Amino acid sequence: MRHLARVALILLVPLALAGCWEKQAAQAPSPHRMTAEDIGHYCGMNVFEHPGPKGHIFVASLIEPVWFSSVHDTIAFTMLPDEPKDIQAIYVSDMGKAPSWDKPGADNWVEARKAVFVIGSRAKSGMGGNEAVPFSERAAAEKFVGESGGRIVGFDQVPRDYVLASVGGQRRASVDDEAGARRPND
After folding, report:
1. What is the four-CA torsion angle of 165, 134, 83, 33, rounded to 10 degrees?
2. Pick from 145, 89, 90: which is nearest to 117 by CA?
């Protein structure tokens, strides 16, 4: 009887622990409302000072979310080798719900890995470079493409070269300095 109890305990403990781990892993932090105190990670400026979509990333090893003045920089953070990789959630402005390009909204976030992005459009990021314009709904992205050009891709389909490329032939100090250590096959 003791042997049977011991075997049952050995089998049940890992299952119980796995269940606890799954609950913790499944609970991503909720997006934060953008405020005047939020500073762009690469530019060091208030995110409200730039037009266009914004982003913020929750990293397990950091207490506060990391804010970005553009979605372009948000995605770059996930690609650069020297940035933390313990990402819990990536939120970007849902431009289908934004009041305007100049005022993208303070709390209309979409999880980036569930969004669709318009790349190659005439719209430029807050710092003047290429932008990956996010939408929670494909129909809104298609409407944007009709008005501003570009093509629709998913988060994992945004090309590294599109995000990490130089702007206007000049290196972007905010992102490109860190991009020097790019992964092979870029």
Report:
1. 140
2. 145
| Residues paired with residue 59 on neighbouring β-strands, in sequence order | 87
Residue with tokens 């599109």: 162
Residue range 70-101, pLDDT digits in tens = 999 999 999 999 999 999 999 999 999 999 99
DSSP letters, 98-167, are -S-SS---SS-EEEGGG-EEEESSS-B-TTSSB--EEESSHHHHHHHHHHH--EEEEGGGS-HHHHHS-B
Q: pLDDT digits over 14-61, tens only?
A: 555 455 444 455 589 999 999 999 999 999 999 988 899 999 999 999
Residue 94 contacts residue 73 (beta carbons within 8 Å):
no
pTM of the model: 0.77
3-state secondary structure of 37: coil
CB 58 within 8 A of CB 33: no
Q: Please, are residues 166 and 176 in contact by the beta-carbon 8 Å criterion?
A: yes
Count of C-beta atoms within a 10 Å radius of residue 167: 17
Tell me the C-alpha distance between 124 and 104, whole Å: 13
Q: Extract the tokens encoding 151.
A: 């093509």
Tokens of 22: 């799954």
